[in-house]
Amino acid sequence: MILIVEQLLNGLQYGVMLFLLAAGLTLIFGIMGVINLAHGSLFMVGAYAGTYVAGVTGSFWLGLPAALLAAGMTGFVVEAVVIRRLYARDHLDQVLATFALILIANQGIVLVFGRQPVFTPLPEIFSGSVEVLPGLPYPIYRLFIIAVGLLVAVGLYLLINRTRVGMLVRAGATNRDMVRALGVDIRGLYTLVFGLGALLAGLAGYMIGPISSVQVGMGEQILLATFVVVVVGGVGSIKGAFVAGIGLGVVDTLLRAFLPGVLRGVMPPSDADAIGLGVASMGIYLLMALVLLVRPRGLFAAGA
Amino acid sequence: MSVLRVTHLVKRFGGLVATDDVSLTVEAGEIHALIGPNGAGKSTLINQLCGELAPDGGRVELGGRDVTRASVPARVALGLGRTFQVTSLLEEATCRENIAMAVQARAGLNFRIWDRIAGRQGIWDQADATLAGTGLVARVDVRAQDLSHGERKQLELLVALARKPRVLLLDEPMAGLGHVESAQMIAQLRDIPLPMLLVEHDMAAVFALATRISVLVYGRIIASGSVEDIRENPEVRAAYLGAEDALC
């Protein structure tokens, strides 16, 4: 029981990460129609910039604005220089161009920081654990990540559903042509959305630093799962990104933790471990296939 | 002064001249209908007027201002409103919300974009005012996707009107409408005191509404004139109207 709760929390923490990345990606994909493979690079840029500043100053909290600023600025420049030329192009061009951005970002990071993973110092208050249940200590820092993710979710919900700019963003995700025909300067909206997505990616990248290493290629590892979240949640839907992010995060974590053990009951241990881990790592893709069978446009697709 | 003036507009796609030296105007108080067979270049022309497509030559003026190179939002800001051939709405939003979107677009992306919508009663009041007295007044809280095809066409027109345009470009507003719905749409269009450029296949609607008709064939305007002129123009009959019964 305690083990299950612990893995649920781990899944929640992973899900929150996926949500932070998928929220930006789903808006960029849904509103701008751009497949941005380089979203993971923004995640990496945020992680490196924040971790570097935290390392130099010795302060975790100074790393945070650095991560946001670096990812936001990178997003801003990338949108203005590259992405803006891709809106009218087809998806193959977008994939090629943003894939090139991944290679450039990865090599750029290697040139500046080298290939060695870097680590973020954790402030004192995050170093311990709290007992979330009797007999279950859980690292404070992971709880902090979950809390930040949920706060961002609430903030995004209010922004998207309660403000005028949110109304335009929702309308833009549903029907771009109509919004343009009503005279909204959609380019301004695009820059805003891309910048917001970059900020969230940078935030996620910096926060993941202390619990997994900050290294070249970290963005691509999580990007694939993020795209699955976007597709399952429904392109353009923040709510979908939230539900699918948390859901897939939990499912993935639970499968990896428990499937080998379950299979050991019915087959030899070595086979159970191999098959269990294999199936567990396929889990979210199988789930995606199932969801798409029932709801081909994802759980909460924006637009019809 | 013409509300909309197009002079010597040219658009080529490779060897194909899709818009071939087209000149036309929309004057205050008139409904100028643009007719032509499929593939005549009507959509290409509309897209150049809206700013979706840049012409290779010629000039587009809105209210006397040159907008040939202007963006879509810039043209809308100068009073251009449009509807689409395929109805374009926020499907999951209600009628009221669709209208509110247009009202709010008129306010623009200014520094107050972070305001709460709920606090801006004006937006909803204006949306209700736009819907009052229309056939949709009993359907304000129905989602666009749940409306009938005729109601959707009607809503799209109201959305365009809520933006308070000075001239309307209507891309086949009768498409897919039945007899009764067409009659309602004709009545609705007749009540709108705005100059319009009406692209339409439904000849009954064109003859009922238009004050002037231009005929586009292979990217060129082959005839332009009053309803009677066009009905009796032999060149138009040969090129487009064809059989006698197409006229009724």
From TrEMBL, chain A:
Highest taxon above the source species: Bacteria
Keywords tagged on the record: Amino-acid transport, Cell membrane, Membrane, Transmembrane, Transmembrane helix, Transport
Transmembrane segments annotated in the record for this chain: 12-35, 66-83, 95-114, 140-160, 188-208, 214-235, 242-263, 275-294
GO process annotations (BP): amino acid transport
InterPro entries, A to Z: ABC_transp_permease, BCAA_transport_permease
Subcellular location, principal: membrane
Topology in membrane: Multi-pass membrane protein
Subcellular location: Cell membrane
Keyword Transmembrane part of the UniProt annotation: yes
Pfam families according to UniProt: BPD_transp_2
GO molecular function, one term: transmembrane transporter activity
GO cellular component term of the entry, any: plasma membrane
Family that this chain belongs to: Belongs to the binding-protein-dependent transport system permease family. LivHM subfamily.
Protein name: Branched-chain amino acid transport system permease protein
Organism encoding this protein: Pseudorhodobacter antarcticus
TrEMBL record, chain B:
MF (Gene Ontology): ATP binding; ATP hydrolysis activity
Segments forming domain ABC transporter: 4-243
GO CC, alphabetical: plasma membrane
Keywords: ATP-binding, Nucleotide-binding, Transport
Gene3D superfamilies in the cross-refs: P-loop containing nucleotide triphosphate hydrolases (3.40.50.300)
InterPro entries given in the database record: AAA+_ATPase, ABC_AA/LPS_Transport, ABC_transporter-like_ATP-bd, BCA_ABC_TP_C, P-loop_NTPase
Designated name of the protein: Amino acid/amide ABC transporter ATP-binding protein 1, HAAT family
Source organism of the structure: Pseudorhodobacter antarcticus
